[in-house]
Amino acid sequence: MIVYGVNPVLEALRAGRVRAIRVGTASSARTAEVRRLAAAAGTPVTRVPTEVLDRVTGRAVHQGVVADVTAPAPLNLDELISGATDPALLLVLDGIEDPQNLGAILRTAEAAGVDGVIRQTRRAAPLGRVAKSSAGALTHVRVASVVNIARAVTDLKTAGIWTVGLEADGDDIFAGFDLTLPTALVVGSEGRGLRRLVRERCDRVVSIPLLGRINSLNVAVAAGIALFEAVRQRRHALAPSAK
After folding, report:
1. pLDDT band at residue 224, thresholds of 50, 70 and 90?
2. How far apart are CA 109 and CA 94, in angstroms?
3. pTM assigned to the model
4. Which domains can be identified in the chain, with CATH numbers?
């Protein structure tokens, strides 16, 4: 798997996943930082024409640096659940196909300290295309890929984890649900939201109140709002005044 862009490559270096780095002919203070960390890790760095970097990244904005990295070890759902903290906080993605949205979701999930992300193998953005948009979070977030999201929701419930779907027409306001419980937040695709069977299998379906004229939020934004509401509730529950 390749990772490109200064920040994603730096994060991959810090995570110890980089096998080799290619840099363009131009240099900057940021690429110098990449070289410094690579030297400290004993990672080879090769200077190549910019055209080579354009070709391997499909002319993406690579900022003059591309790394060959070891992909995160694949996890199954049981491994993800068993490695979660108590109470678990998981994020389930029901058909997120846009790499930019997936990258933004992974970045927010990492910042919120989620125990892992569950995604579908089919009709979903490939992980290899999201390293740049996730700003390196892909190297830190535990991801389990499953064949059937609806079945995964059922398995999460069996494991004692509340499954909370997020939809514009949800039955309750999301902030009114107790997110200090072991929780898996379930978000749907950019166009159709949660699929019917996935929605039906969720314990609850909640919504984010919208006060303006727009009737929906970008899925990455909605996921971020819900995740940090869970963070807020959990921090409040642990505060001395809450005891």
Report:
1. very high
2. 15
3. 0.80
4. 2-69 (3.30.1330.30), 77-242 (3.40.1280.10)
